[in-house]
Amino acid sequence: MAPETFLRVLGTSPYKVAYVQPSRRPADGRYGENPNRLYKHTQLQVILKPPPENVQELYLESLGAMGIDLRQHDIKFEEDNWEAPTLSAWGVGWQVMLDGLEITQFTYFQQCGGVDLDPISAELTYGLERIAAFLQDVDSIYDIVWARDPGTGRATTYGDVRLVDEQQFSFYNFEQADVQSAWTFFTLYEQECQKLIDNFRLLARPKPDGVQPDLKWFPLLPAYDLCLKCSHLFNILDARGAISVTERVGVIARVRTLAVGIARAWVDQQRGETQTNVNEEKPAAKQPKVKKEPVPVVS
Amino acid sequence: MPDFLLEIGCEEIPARMIDAASSDLRQRVHKLLERERLSSTGTISSVDSPRRLAVLASGIPIAQADLTEQVSGPPVSAAFKDGQPTPAAHAFARKAGVDVSQLERVTTSKGEYLAAKITKKGRTAAEVLSEVLPKEINSIYWPKNMYWRKPSEKFVRPIRWLVALLDREVIPLEFDGVRAGNQSRGHRILTEGPIQIPSAGGYVEALRAAGVLDRGVREQQIRKALDAATRTIPSARWREDKALLDAVVNLTEWPFVVLGSFECEFLELPEEVLVTVMRDHQKYFAVEGAGGKLLPHFLAVLNTDGDSRGIIRHGHERVLRARFNDARFFWQTDQKHPLRERTAWLKHVTFQKDLGSYYDKTRRVQELCRRLSARLKNDGAAGMEKLRSGVIHKAAWLAKTDLTTELVKEFTELQGIVGGLYARAQVLDPDMKDEAREAIAAAIYDQYKPESMEDSVARSVEGAILAIADKADSIAGMFALGLQPTGSKDPFALRRQANGIVKTIAEKKLPLSLGQLFADAREVYRGSAAEPKFSDEVGYTAALRTFLRERLEFYLRDALGFKYDVVNAVLAAGSDDVVDAAARAEAVTRVRPSEDFESISIAFKRIKNILRQAGEAGKRVASAVDAEVLQDATERQLASRIPRAAEVVDGLRAQRNYEGALAEISKLRPAVDAFFDKVMVMVDDERIRANRLALLQTLLKEFSTIADFSEIVTESRESKESSKQ
Lengths: 299, 725
Known about the structure:
Chain A has 299 residues and is of the alpha+beta class. Helices cover 43% and strands 21% of the residues of chain A.
């Protein structure tokens, strides 16, 4: 869960952004041999905080903007409630199915880092490889045309860009990653992260003269980065088969402790800045809404 | 009398929750209409789809009828003085809202009292409903819900619109910031914009015109469409699947069915794999031809009105092809390392952190199977001479190897099944006959059966023993570690596994003792790395006994349908032998209606009570009945009958003729009844009393071996007598 998502959905400041995010799941690696399964795939992540009442309609319009004419297809919202136990985060929502293919995870976040969200955020995660393969009607993700040379017309495919990546990382994650080192890294990152959280707590205590310290410079984002490193190492150890079914619970709990600590610290850190954010929002609301033109699909 | 409509418009409700919620809402509306004196003179029905829950109540009163009630006030004596109303009378009149002159008098058993008739004017239905409906909407039960904006109400998904009508009139209802109107929404894709609901009575038609059908209609339409699509292929039929049908009904507002196909070569894969992919992952119906064999087709239920260019079918075919390719890849890759090579790999797959790896489990289960087979064969149980220990031994060796396969890692629900399929397809042993391999494959395939009380047990005896041993090993290990299930937590599904053991033993009629089974199961852990972490054996045995008794009780009561008191009576006399307990329950159920049996049950309750009271009062019970001390003719009669009766009963019991034994016990009724009529047990003479108590003790002991009759629920009339002595 990217910092842009995990931390920004906490607190009250409105936040409406979209960004591209790679998502790595070592256990899903297939050495580049499976035409539909990747260890690293790319998501277009949209956060709408707070979500507008017509969020579902907006989502469907976005599909139209991508060149998917919903009148020609079968679209279903099937229950799927996303959760990340390592980050004590969960939501309620759907996987959006387009002609039997899952293309989006649509979630209303309810909790992050153990904190109840207010306002909630709607998270729309578009599976870009899936959608591209769908639009280009190719059977293998690796055949997706990533770009085309304007001069020669020669296509650069997804495979050209990422096949080697998939092969080497699968090999590493499943066979080569040193388990002992991974545990050592995990513990080191965990300790550093916890140290930062503890330091923040110390500094955040009100001084004897009653002045609330300004800590917006305190590196909570780097702390979160360390937490993500732990989460990733957990995934690698899992892919290596180094964590038993009962050990998993304990390791997940360790990462969750970090995530929850950071989430709470972040909320407190933001409270010092909430005033400024709210004032900045007001001018933006006055701008007229621009009607979006459908983006032509490059094929 | 207008028709009432309430529609809650919502974002897509999870398919699995719609039916229960719809019913919940309908019942709530029904009850509230009754409560508020607005009962429907016609019908109350529900309409639902993924995006709406609605209730229609036809012909409800436009307003509540006025309600007149009589309220009573102070006694007349305090209300009037010298013919004038007192302050008490005035206060009452004021409270009742009437003039003092309108006060009435009523005569009660306590004297004359003031009374007043109060008329509560009936409110309009609109007013009442707008007031009470929000609470009902909020109270609908959802297994999982969310909040949209704090501090909003929690609901399954955000509510987007409300329709509340009495005929054409909008009921001024508001829920969680949404105000009711007469605008609804039609099908997401087939209809643009909001739709008008002209009146409550016109609701269903308005929806239909906007691309939304009610559940019942959708189901019918889907069935017809599935039939029609399949008819295009000669001799084909779609495979019935109630759960899948319910799911797709609740995923559509306007269903349409397409028939797709896949490459024939995928039919080389086992049906179990193909159907799991189609049904669980893609929600497709499988198509079978003559003889029930799968055909290279599938049926997808869409939420739209057509697929004229075949684009949607093409998309589904693409997805299915990718999934089948995956499955085939796994199937082929897995075969490169046949099962017989994989047992060693199980050393790296943890079963439970203290109990070791699956390899360790495999060894234990093998040993446990060996012991069980030996017991069954040596005890000379019927049919056990043909037990093939070799088959069990080999099946146990390979049973868990499928956990290392790619196919099971991908489709975890196919554990056991994949093992069985691979075992059938591979050469397990060059010298092995086909028939043996088939038996081994079947045992592996069935090892997790029964998955629930409704599921069947393993097909062969060998499969049953493997299934029992595997489950017993898990349960024994957990209990020995002190990890037994609690009220709410049972992460290893030990209850389900124990149920499975009970059901398997019962249906296969295996003469296995539960106590012995679990003693063996723990014994097999001896010398293992897990053993030092085990709790003491006494605690283990006690905890298991209670646990297993509960499971047997559950089986007898819920699965076989025996009455709870019969089950209690039978288990009190022994809960170690499942088959025996079931047979005794059967016998008790058959003799229960007889008067004699009823009488005996009452008598035994009495006996137990007397003995208990005696014990509490510290009265001695003689160690044996001394014939010399018997005085009364009736007690001598009873005492003399006991030994002979006991002999006959024991003989019948040994033959497992429980009905006969019970009938024999029932014959004691006259003697027992006479005893209680004539003889007083708690006399002052200590010797006589102790002797009589011993007589009762003996009766209890000798004749409670089939069932504890005192547990049988009888007519309360006579059991009250039991406390008299």
